[in-house]
């Protein structure tokens, strides 16, 4: 049973968050092991498995990005994770800039940060955060909407687009984290996007 | 699955107790059938808190108040704050060992304590506390009790949870559920008509700190995020106060210390006395602005006055360390502080005014604590026990796993399978294969933590997948399922996909007790149980008599002149009566004689108190005169 089926949903990316939560609570009441403490061992095991499946499904579907990532794997028949799915890739238009950042990062690691480099890196980090947010908005907004309305023959192309956007986003995340570390900042700003 | 529910309704509700196994104190509670409300079960003398202290005395094992009284007299064989060592490796705790007077040493992924000529593990010590609570409940219900819900800090990892469950088994209790302390507290508040919304539970106990953020809606208590520190609590407050006092003593009584040759910092009795004095002062300063301390040492008596401001200055950095986990929990929940509707305080250390102030500042609202912060966790455990017994059906707790679970991949990098703050139970599947032709065994290393490298995370276990059919490298497809159950404890299963054959797994837990160890401890524990209960009560009565006798002898020699001849003779004869009773075997006689002696000395004690106060005042005045001159 895949995550969409657990909730009785079609394989669509547009999901009403409130309805999903309501359904999650309903199903939790049905499956949670707390309510099966005196069932037979077989029934208890079933409840545990069903509850674990439900929680995993909810965790994935409530997060729009995790939802897309999952859908891509599902469509490609890789429901069980097998190492890293897509190698993080640098967005082509940012390649030159990335090269500069990596260089500045290496310098910072080797000899500490002077004020100018710190300012440059902070600015670059801001820009990458904006780019990261943009990539997420594109994934959650237009790309998801197009997928839900697309004819089956359009899907392979869309999947490729999803994969590319996800890889770009993953790459940006890594660089943003590296920059944050070099600047001595926490990862709180993006912490809740993690999945 | 629905048939299970029906079966419950047809049978009598099973008796499950709720236990808060605390660093400093432990409690047992149940939900009253008549009122539907949770209640703490007191001991025979009406005390609700059982000090989590176990003394391995020559006469036998003492627990609770009786053991607490041994702390100063027998520091090397009286174990306290053992929760700090549950599920811990020597490496985790070695830095703080010098503060403990009992011997702690490394032992194959865990620590062992050498106390009173015995070698015990932390779960065995906790088992003594659990057993005492079990007996307390049995005395209350007048029937055997075998099942319990036991609480742990939310930030406890897998090993610490396993150790807690082992402790239950050793105590003869089936731990039907491990519940997180802050969530248990939320359940207790929930019964008291907690309004719906988002609540933050700030739980600062004797040795651990947790923050949990929950959404309460339609009877569902959904934990959104949790964070904490399993090595931060009131014990640490006591320690900084104690070290500050020690410095002051060594400075002000330098001459006496040199003369007596006393090495205060290495004297277990003296340090224990100092620690207890620091704890008592901290507690008094939660309600008072200043307090006096008088601590007798061999050769001199240390007297000082400390203020709340002194203590606040000392503990400020520790309190500050609780704020970062709160911010992280908020970030993980994807919430801003304005979105928190209520803040609840749990744990004895939240009585400290500075803690309340800092929490209020952080969340920008007045926290509430209308349920006793010492009792609320046990009450919540009782509510969860009731839910499991089928007695409450409209409430459901959905908790999370506090730490990310991952496996070590090439280069020692962690690949996360289940991220922190995932609702439990939950599972994740991962595909494994072979890297060499004909390979039949695959190794996995499972870790828990937030760091990128496996070596910086907590190693949970190494698994060996065995019995893989010999095939070319990369051909076998072994699907491994990692399941975290509702207790927050990991289970692993593996299956070869091609053949559908279950692969056998050999688990080598990095920390903790092997199954055989637990079995042996369960057996040994029954041997303790056979030791006569009345023998233990006799020991307790004698210990109490000893304490009173020592006090009275000292009082007579120091303040005997304050009372008349008749009164002095009366005290002397009560004292002799107690000495005679103590030599005998009759526990009730000892108790009565102790009470009688206490009664006979009440007046003397009052007079001495007055004299001491006057003395203190006059010496203070003298000090003021000297300062102004």
For the record, give the distance between the C-alpha atoms at the N and C termini of chain A, rounded to a whole number. Answer: 21 Å
Into how many domains do the coordinates of chain A divide? 2
The tally of structural domains of chain B comes to 4
Q: Estimate the strand proportion of chain B.
A: 25-35%
What is the string of helix and strand elements of chain A? Answer: HHHHHHHH
Assembly state: heterodimer
The CATH topology label of the largest domain in chain B is Nucleotidyltransferase, domain 5
Spatial extent as radius of gyration of chain A = 21 Å
Helix content of chain A: over 70%
Which class do the helix and strand fractions of chain A yield? Answer: mainly alpha
Kindly name the structural category of chain B. alpha+beta
User: Biggest interface, and residues per chain?
Assistant: A-B, 38 and 48 residues
Envelope shape of chain A: elongated
The biggest beta sheet of chain B is recorded as: 6 strands, mixed
Report on this structure.
The complex is a heterodimer of chains A (195) and B (629). With 195 residues, chain A is mostly helical. Chain A contains eight helices and no strands. The longest helix of chain A has 35 residues, at 115-149. The radius of gyration of chain A is 21 Å and the shape is elongated. The two termini of chain A are 21 Å apart. With 629 residues, chain B is α+β, with helices and mostly antiparallel strands. In chain B, helix 5 (122-141) crosses helix 6 (158-170) and helix 16 (533-559) packs parallel to helix 18 (587-600). The A-B interface holds A 25, 28-40, 43-44, 46-53, 55-56, 58-59, 80-84, 188, 191-192, 194-195 and B 1, 3-5, 7-8, 11, 14, 176-177, 217-218, 220, 222, 327-328, 331-334, 384, 387-390, 393, 396-398, 409, 415, 417, 419, 422-431, 479, 483-486.
SSE layout:
The complex is a heterodimer of chains A (195) and B (629).
Chain A: H1 3-6, H2 17-31, H3 41-62, H4 64-75, H5 95-111, H6 115-149, H7 155-182, H8 188-191
Helix pairs in contact in A: 2-3, 3-4, 4-7, 5-7, 6-7
Chain B: H1 2-10, E1 16-21, E2 25-31, E3 38-40, E4 50-51, E5 54-57, E6 60-63, H2 65-68, H3 70-73, E7 78-79, H4 90-93, E8 103-107, E9 110-115, E10 118-120, H5 122-141, E11 147-152, H6 158-170, E12 174-180, H7 181-191, E13 197-204, E14 209-217, E15 220-229, H8 234-252, H9 254-260, H10 268-284, E16 290-297, E17 300-307, H11 308-320, H12 323-333, E18 342-346, H13 353-363, H14 376-389, E19 396-398, E20 400-401, E21 405-408, E22 414-418, E23 422-423, E24 426-432, E25 442-448, E26 458-466, E27 478-484, E28 490-496, E29 504-509, H15 515-530, H16 533-559, H17 565-583, H18 587-600, H19 602-628
Parallel strand pairs in B: 1-11, 11-12, 13-18, 15-19
Antiparallel strand pairs in B: 1-2, 2-3, 2-4, 5-6, 5-7, 8-9, 9-10, 13-14, 14-15, 16-17, 20-23, 21-22, 21-25, 24-27, 25-26, 26-29, 27-28
Helix pairs in contact in B: 5-6, 7-14, 8-10, 8-11, 16-17, 16-18, 17-18
